[in-house]
Specification:
The protein is built from eight helices and twelve strands. The longest helix has 16 residues. Helices cover 32% and strands 28% of the residues. A hairpin with a 2-residue loop joins strand 7 and strand 8. The protein has a domain of 168 residues: Rossmann fold, CATH 3.40.50. The protein has 250 residues and is α/β, with parallel strands linked by helices.
Length: 250
């Protein structure tokens, strides 16, 4: 058990892929009701850290402590069951399925016994409407196929799916990278709403202005190490850039 009040704590995480040292003694944390940003150049190790947290990778050394317990997820579904949801950069949506089908993908509500089970489609559609309306997502209809949605609407569906199943921690990997100004603003509003509802949000972003607008805590990674942590209110985008490049000492 950890005595910290952090929902997530990563302690001295190290991971190698063959001869490549991807992570070296990385330590960082995230609290409920806060947006925690992880920033750094490409190859700094940001995505590798969140993949260790979400059960995609298993570290060679170190601990992941979630909700007061040391966890050793070996599959992403174990992380989801514990309350960790991840919105990947590619969104992992099926374009030819409807919004409600994507929301309940691999979480289908069924009835019956053994192999004789049937989908409770009406219940899933109704729950999907409630999930979407709760986040005020601008999606035309839960019966629309994802293929018909704009980039911002697709991102909103992915965020809605992550927030809608008793998640405690929502990890977002570059959630607005491919969006325009208006769609970015709407997605940022959703992220802030998740924080206001008490979720912990772990945000990976190259957009320093976005990080300074949204984040409560910023962790800086460089060459597989977490080199600095700053409260967003106590730093600037210029300092963060300097920490990333090494121009400013941690």
């Amino acid at each position: 058990m950890t005595k910290s009040n952090d929902l997530l704590e990563v302690r001295n995480l190290s991971l190698s892929f063959g001869s490549v040292r991807a992570l070296r003694d990385v330590s960082l944390s995230a609290k409920s009701g806060e947006i925690t940003a992880v920033v750094g150049d490409n190859g700094a190790g940001k995505s590798t850290v969140v993949r260790c947290v979400s059960g995609v990778h298993q570290s060679d050394e170190g601990d992941v402590i979630f909700d007061g317990e040391v966890v050793n997820f070996t599959r992403p579904d174990q992380a989801r069951q514990a309350g960790i949801e991840t919105v990947h950069q590619n969104l992992a949506l099926v374009e030819d399925l409807t919004v409600w089908q994507n929301l309940f993908l691999n979480r289908e509500i069924t009835q019956g016994l053994g192999p004789f089970r049937f989908l409770r489609k009406r219940e899933m559609r109704n729950q999907a409407r409630d999930m979407v309306s709760k986040l005020a997502v601008n999606v035309p209809s839960v019966t629309s196929t994802v293929r018909r949605l704009s980039g911002g609407q697709r991102q909103a569906v992915a965020i809605c799916r992550a927030a809608g199943f008793s998640s405690k921690l929502v990890i977002m990997d570059e959630p607005t990278a491919a969006l325009g100004v208006q769609e970015t603003r709407k997605v940022e509003e959703l992220i802030q709403r998740l924080r206001d509802e008490g979720h912990a949000v772990l945000l990976i972003s190259h957009n320093f202005d976005q990080v300074m607008r949204l984040a409560d805590q910023v962790w800086v990674m460089r060459a597989g190490q977490c080199v600095a942590g700053r409260k967003a209110r106590d730093t600037t985008a210029q300092e963060i850039v300097g920490l990333i490049t090494g121009a400013i000492a941690a």
